[in-house]
Amino acid sequence: MAKTGSDISSGQSPMFFRDILGQERVLGHLRAAWKGGRLAHAYLFLGPEGVGRESVARALAAALNCTQPAAEWDACGECPSCKRMAAGTHADFLVIRPTSEHRQPQIKIGQIREFRRLTAYPPMEGGWRVALIKPAEDMQPEAANALLKTLEEPPERHLLILAAGSEAGLYQTIVSRCQKLSFSPLPSALVIRELQARRGLSREAAGFLTALSGGSLGRALALNPEELAEQRRQVFADLEKMARGSATAVLDWAKRLAKNKQEVDNFLLLAQMRYRDLLLLECGAASGLLAHQDCAADLEKEKARGNPEIWFASFAALAAAHRQLQANLNPQLTLDILGLRLQHQGVSHESR
Ligand SMILES: [Zn+2]
């Protein structure tokens, strides 16, 4: 089923260009294209989750359909079209998302067919019909193939937006028929500021979440600072134990951790940030740059042991494990090897 805008559950998602955080380049491009009457019929919004791709699609739909847009081209928020956009009931803004009846969520050919049926008719409210397909990587091959027909013969006053993490998961035939716009990770200072304002977090706590978010405000807002602080205690304790423990202890650790993908991801990230912090401290970086600012005392203690080579090797081992897991290698095997590598680093440090 092609779903309507009402499925955008979060009333939080901005619908105005003026409320979009960062992404000035993308917005500048869209405004200039609109002013020059050169809007493409299909855009590919590339970038990580949570940096504003969906918000920009929504703001674009709102501005295109607004009956009294602001001077710098933005929706007014007052006209009937804007009110329906705000309520998520606009008939001409469609969001096509994967359905998860099966194990793997997918955008099915039926959803694209239904959208294509709609495109035979002009937009219902007389403006533009805007459809967001997200994530575009989740389209079944048949669905992508069906969409290709729309991209080859774009209907009047229709705008298609495909949101994807990268081009890698898409067919080149689709990519080549879209105008690409790259969304950047948001600057740290901006994410920290928003976290402080929206969550009432301290500078240290906001900095911690920001460091883990990879420049995605959406991801940062979804993180739970208390839970992460608790996980961090566990991660630091595990690292310490592994450096001193037996091979059996390492294998037990790997077995325990491998059961939960989220915990594995958090371990890799939190541990990598720790070694990164130590290397930064070693270079004399300001404490404001550290991810684990609120653990400064612990880091200073570790730094006093002065083993930059070991920190670097540990960081590299963690990064390698991360790559291997992304490539779908067996999690437990990957963690076994990671644990032994981390232990070996620790042991050589102890024996010096
Ligand atoms: Zn309006």
CATH class of the largest domain: Alpha Beta
User: How would you state the average pLDDT, rounded?
Assistant: 89
Number of individual domains: 2
Radius of gyration: 24 Å
Instruction: Note the total helix count.
Output: 15
Low-pLDDT stretches: 1-11, 348-352
- Distance from N terminus to C terminus (CA atoms, Å) equals 64 Å
Oligomeric state of this protein: single chain
The portion of residues assigned to helices is: 40-55%
CATH-derived topology of the largest domain: Rossmann fold
CATH architecture descriptor name of the largest domain: 3-Layer(aba) Sandwich
Shape: elongated
Strand percentage, roughly? 5-15%
What binds here, in terms of ligands, is: zinc ion
Outline the structure in words.
With 352 residues, the chain is α/β, with parallel strands linked by helices. The chain has helices at 24-35, 53-65, 80-87, 109-119, 141-152, 172-175, 188-199, 203-213, 217-222, 225-244, 247-258, 261-282, 296-305, 308-326, 331-350; strands at 3-4, 42-46, 93-96, 129-133, 158-164, 179-182. The protein has two domains: 3-182, 3-Layer(aba) Sandwich (Rossmann fold); 224-350, Up-down Bundle (Zinc Finger, Delta Prime, domain 3). 55% of the residues lie in helices and 8% in strands. The chain has a six-stranded mixed beta sheet, with helices on both faces. The longest helix has 22 residues, at 261-282. The relative contact order is 0.10.
